[in-house]
Fold this sequence. Notes:
This protein has a six-stranded parallel sheet with strand order 8-7-6-10-9-11, with helices on both faces. It has a five-stranded mixed sheet with strand order 1-2-5-3-4. With 249 residues, it is α/β, with parallel strands linked by helices. The protein has nine helices and eleven strands. α6 links the parallel β7 and β8. The protein has two domains: 78 residues, CATH 3.30.1330.30; 161 residues, Alpha/beta knot. α1 runs parallel beside α2 and α5 runs parallel beside α9.
Amino acid sequence: MNENGNGSNIIAGRNAVLEAIRSGREIDRLLVSHGTEGGSVTAIIAKCKQRGILIKEVSPQKLDYLCGGAVHQGVAVMIASHNYCEVGDILKLAKERGEPPFIIICDEIEDPHNLGAIIRTAEACGVHGIIIPERRSASLNMTVAKSASGALEYMLVARVTNISNTIDELKEKGVWVYGADMGGSDRHSFDFTGSTAVVIGNEGKGIGRLVAKKCDGIVSLPMYGKINSLNASVAAGVLMYEVADQRHK
């Protein structure tokens, strides 16, 4: 196993990758070099598909870099630094605590430092769990774990294939969903004391259009300077503490 410049734990080489998959380890994604096919690679891809593991094709140069010089034979897997849970596990935890669910939904947060910072603040604010998408999102790699400063060990994180569908499922279970975006209402105008999920959007694009349409409300933070947006983890922190303050008054 190699911890590379990307900050992820990598297992490289066909036999090592196959054994990692067979062992049932929490695997974030399979990386396959362009043009690598046949033999054991076909079996590796098939097993990953069976387990629902994300498969990504990358250039040989990219795979060389990620593997830090290790012999990879065209394949490698990124090992998650923490096990993912199901959305139902988050709702179950809230019920066990006798509290209305408090969930953070990260809509394509790509910077692992941001995701780690969100996890750290979420744990401090009593969030029951975080939901991230399977694609176009930072995963639970070593950089996220380090940025979370230990909080990842106490936070449930669910990874889903479709954020919009997950929002629909949460709303069916009585969870109110609020998006953090421009053009919304002041955070003080919302009642966050009930079952609440807050959506934090991508660092550059913000919340996706379809996701925003599904939200019950859009929350905006006032900006008094010359810039018109905050870092995603900072905005998330402000809103998480707003929810926490309302719930503990």
